[in-house]
């Protein structure tokens, strides 16, 4: 089946690292994504990882992929108040041969000053 | 500005009515996707079009329909509206019809309120 799960809420202090976790079910997913949604806005692609990679780093963002456990995580270093938003994990199911993305429920990140 | 334009931004209508949501994809993108975001269901894939043809269908109700026109803009038609249809409707676009390594570009959404 196609299912993506995330924890719903994470609270951190400014300057700390944030780690948002996600599990997915489709082992044939070729790409996995992290999107960010700020209040009243659409979804903005933060980063993506190809399924043959274990890790991808992009400035303050680090994505880790454990394909065996179908576990994806997003680490935000030196978290700022501007990082407060909802973060969505998504997979592009390999079996679908379409661009359909399956999204998790979203993790609300609260950054306290 | 993401390049994906959705109109209107807000819509308030009564139960039983019909509305049309419009989306213009980013320049050069051939594929359009519609998603519904509600508090209880999260982000649900509705439908995908690629170059005017339906490519994939998700959890789209029979009361809903969509199309993509020759100029590549897309419309989502919602009819016999119910209170439960109140949600944010997002349009997204991509160049390719599948295996989208760079993800999509999302519009800012249309907030539909059914009263």
Compute the number of strand runs of chain B: 11
How many strands of chain A?
11
- Main pleated sheet of chain A: 6 strands, mixed
Count of individual helical segments of chain A:
0
Task: Characterise this structure.
The complex is a heterodimer of chains A (113) and B (115). With 113 residues, chain A is an all-beta fold. Chain A contains no helices and eleven strands. Chain A has strands spanning 4-6, 9-13, 18-24, 31-37, 43-50, 55-58, 61-66, 71-76, 85-91, 102-103, 107-112. The model of chain A has no long low-confidence stretch (mean pLDDT 91). By secondary structure, chain B is mostly beta strands. In chain B, strands 2, 4, 5, 6, 9, 10 and 11 form a seven-stranded mixed beta sheet that branches. In chain B, strands 1-3-8-7 form a four-stranded antiparallel beta sheet, with no helix packed on it. Chain B is globular and about 40 Å long. The mean pLDDT of chain B is 93. At the A-B interface, strand 4, strand 5 and strand 10 of A face strand 4, strand 5, strand 9 and strand 10 of B.
């Amino acid at each position: 089946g196609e299912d993506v799960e995330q924890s719903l809420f994470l609270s951190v202090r400014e300057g700390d690292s944030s780690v948002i976790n996600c599990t997915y079910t489709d082992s044939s997913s070729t790409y996995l994504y992290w999107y960010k949604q700020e209040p009243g806005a659409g979804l903005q692609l933060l980063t993506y990882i190809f399924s043959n990679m274990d890790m991808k780093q992009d400035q303050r963002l680090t994505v880790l992929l454990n394909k065996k456990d179908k576990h994806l995580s997003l680490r935000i270093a030196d978290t700022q108040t501007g990082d407060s938003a909802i973060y969505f994990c998504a997979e592009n199911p390999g079996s679908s041969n379409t661009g359909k993305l399956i999204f998790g429920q979203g993790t609300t990140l609260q950054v306290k000053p | 500005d993401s390049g994906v334009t959705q109109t209107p931004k807000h819509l308030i209508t009564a139960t039983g009515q019909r509305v049309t949501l419009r989306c213009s994809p980013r320049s050069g993108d051939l594929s359009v996707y519609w998603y519904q975001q509600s508090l209880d269901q999260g982000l649900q894939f509705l439908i995908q079009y690629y170059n005017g043809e339906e490519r994939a269908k998700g959890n789209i109700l029979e009361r809903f329909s969509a199309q993509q026109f020759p100029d590549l803009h897309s419309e989502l038609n919602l009819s016999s509206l119910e209170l439960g249809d109140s949600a944010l409707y997002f349009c997204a676009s991509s160049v390719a019809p599948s295996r989208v390594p760079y993800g999509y570009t999302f519009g800012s959404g249309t907030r539909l309120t059914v009263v």
